[in-house]
Design a protein that fits this description.
Layout lengths: L6 E2 L6 E2 L2 E6 L5 E6 L6 E8 L14 E4 L8 H14 L4 E4 L5 H9 L6 H25 L3 E4 L3 H11 L1
Parallel strand pairs: 6-8, 7-8
Antiparallel strand pairs: 1-2, 3-4, 4-5
Length: about 160
């Protein structure tokens, strides 16, 4: 099913041609979201793929995993971006990833006004990481590519707990 060309945005009430955004749900499904180009309000979505459970015994990876960790403001994002750009420029099969990976998890964690149970938060991050590893990281490593990562899970979790 495809979206009709013109839609009325439920927030700004403008007649718009929605922009398409590919996203991953909290359950690991890929969806195509249609959003207002003016206010980014969600209008409609279509499911593109079903959730896949992670492999329990991953194949031996041929690639490399590079993680940048450190305290706030030390340049993790800057340096990981520069390394990623340089490797890409040199012709390597490389991706840059950040956690949390799923937009819904980012929104939930960053916008939550209530205290989130620490155990629940750890499970949410763990589920997000499994999806990231299964769908993005492992396929790149298995084909011999490089993964550059700004922050690792344990450090990220401690930052979120401290910020609350």
């Amino acid at each position: 099913m495809t979206m009709e060309k013109n839609q009325i945005c439920p927030k700004c009430a403008k007649l718009v041609v929605p922009r398409e955004v590919i996203a991953t749900t909290l359950f690991g499904e890929k969806v195509k979201e249609y959003r207002c180009p003016y206010c980014n309000t969600f209008i409609y979505s279509e499911k593109l793929s079903e959730m896949r459970l992670p492999q329990r015994v991953p194949e031996k990876a041929k690639g490399f995993y590079i993680a940048f960790e450190g305290i706030d403001g030390c340049g993790k994002t800057y340096h990981s971006q520069k390394v990623f750009e340089k490797l890409k420029q040199e012709g390597y099969d490389v991706i840059l990833v950040k956690e949390p990976y799923i937009d819904a998890v980012k929104d939930f964690i960053h916008r939550s006004q209530e205290e989130i149970d620490a155990d629940a938060e750890a499970y949410i991050f763990a589920a997000d990481r499994i999806i990231l590893q299964k769908n993005i990281v492992l396929p790149v490593l298995q084909r011999g590519g490089l993964v550059v990562k700004t922050l690792n899970f344990i450090l990220l979790l401690s930052f979120f707990r401290e910020a609350k």
